[in-house]
């Protein structure tokens, strides 16, 4: 089965967490699910470099990548991922973000995180934030 190494940013600002909703995808089980921004690590990148690059590419959002929160392994029906989540904060010069690739976005309190329909791999990431 194809395997991806993925990084995800738990961006925290004013006590809220940035959550992004996917649009329609190739697979029904990831379509319209909520996730943390990020993506696949490319050859030669550190996880932190990959994360900063992904947030610039998909959101034009400069973030400071901080502590590693958790690494989760998840097998979807068609591929598997190892995903490491890092706590991130917007850089001082960040002036909001653009939504280039996602269907929706939301700043959520801890309580509100529980109400979203998360991608299956994210459930264990969300759990440690509660
Ligand atoms: N970015 C991100 N991807 C996640 C999360 N949870 C999760 O299951 N994934 C899965 O991990 C994979 C990450 O790929 P991606 O599509 O975001 O990566 P990418 O930007 O490099 O995509 P590309 O291959 O289209 O260039 C996707 O299959 C996505 O569904 C999450 O919280 N954040």
From TrEMBL:
<dbReference type="GO" id="GO:0044715">
    <property type="term" value="F:8-oxo-dGDP phosphatase activity"/>
</dbReference>
<keyword id="KW-0460">Magnesium</keyword>
<keyword id="KW-0479">Metal-binding</keyword>
<keyword id="KW-0234">DNA repair</keyword>
<dbReference type="InterPro" id="IPR015797">
    <property type="entry name" value="NUDIX_hydrolase-like_dom_sf"/>
</dbReference>
<feature type="domain" description="Nudix hydrolase">
    <location>
        <begin position="1"/>
        <end position="130"/>
    </location>
</feature>
<dbReference type="InterPro" id="IPR000086">
    <property type="entry name" value="NUDIX_hydrolase_dom"/>
</dbReference>
<keyword id="KW-0378">Hydrolase</keyword>
<comment type="similarity">
    <text>Belongs to the Nudix hydrolase family.</text>
</comment>
<dbReference type="GO" id="GO:0035539">
    <property type="term" value="F:8-oxo-7,8-dihydrodeoxyguanosine triphosphate pyrophosphatase activity"/>
</dbReference>
<dbReference type="GO" id="GO:0046872">
    <property type="term" value="F:metal ion binding"/>
</dbReference>
<dbReference type="InterPro" id="IPR020476">
    <property type="entry name" value="Nudix_hydrolase"/>
</dbReference>
<dbReference type="InterPro" id="IPR047127">
    <property type="entry name" value="MutT-like"/>
</dbReference>
<dbReference type="GO" id="GO:0006260">
    <property type="term" value="P:DNA replication"/>
</dbReference>
<dbReference type="GO" id="GO:0006281">
    <property type="term" value="P:DNA repair"/>
</dbReference>
<dbReference type="Pfam" id="PF00293">
    <property type="entry name" value="NUDIX"/>
</dbReference>
<protein>
    <recommendedName>
        <fullName>8-oxo-dGTP diphosphatase</fullName>
        <ecNumber>3.6.1.55</ecNumber>
    </recommendedName>
</protein>
<keyword id="KW-0227">DNA damage</keyword>
<dbReference type="GO" id="GO:0044716">
    <property type="term" value="F:8-oxo-GDP phosphatase activity"/>
</dbReference>
<keyword id="KW-0235">DNA replication</keyword>
<dbReference type="GO" id="GO:0008413">
    <property type="term" value="F:8-oxo-7,8-dihydroguanosine triphosphate pyrophosphatase activity"/>
</dbReference>
<keyword id="KW-0515">Mutator protein</keyword>
């Amino acid at each position: 089965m194809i395997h991806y190494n993925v990084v995800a940013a738990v961006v925290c600002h004013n006590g809220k967490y940035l959550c992004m909703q996917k649009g329609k995808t190739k697979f029904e089980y990831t379509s319209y699910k909520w996730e943390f921004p990020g993506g696949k690590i490319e050859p030669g990148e550190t996880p932190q470099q990959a994360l900063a690059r992904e947030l610039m590419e998909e959101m034009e959002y400069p973030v400071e990548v901080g502590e590693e929160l958790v690494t989760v392994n998840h097998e979807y029906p068609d591929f598997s991922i190892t995903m490491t989540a890092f706590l991130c904060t917007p850089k001082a010069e960040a002036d909001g973000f653009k939504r280039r690739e996602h269907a929706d976005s939301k700043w959520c309190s801890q309580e509100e995180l529980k109400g979203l329909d998360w991608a299956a791999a994210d459930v264990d990431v969300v759990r440690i934030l509660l």
